[in-house]
Fold this protein.
Amino acid sequence: MAWVYLVIAGFFEMGWAIGLKYTEGFTRLVPTTLTIAAMIISVVLLGLALRDLPVGTGYAVWTGIGTVGTALLGMYLFGDSATAARLASIGLIVAGIIGLKVLS
């Protein structure tokens, strides 16, 4: 169950990272409220996952999911660059996440 919590926490991390863009510096009420809620849910789920997972593994996977998802969503939603080098770097992060999962 810890891995399920961790993956869901990573998705909420993506949500709050992308949500920050929509808050426009915390000047918009609804995006700000949703972003803060996603932050809280993400950290709570991370905490639940860390009851059973090593902290280094859990934190690295959590941030990795958030990083990869946010980078990909940034490309899709905001037109961030999608160069081959950037995509390869994202692939390396995914490989690291998989490696941590396999070795845990």
The two ends are 14 Å apart (CA to CA). Helices lie at 2-23, 29-49, 55-78, 84-103. The chain has four helices and no strands.
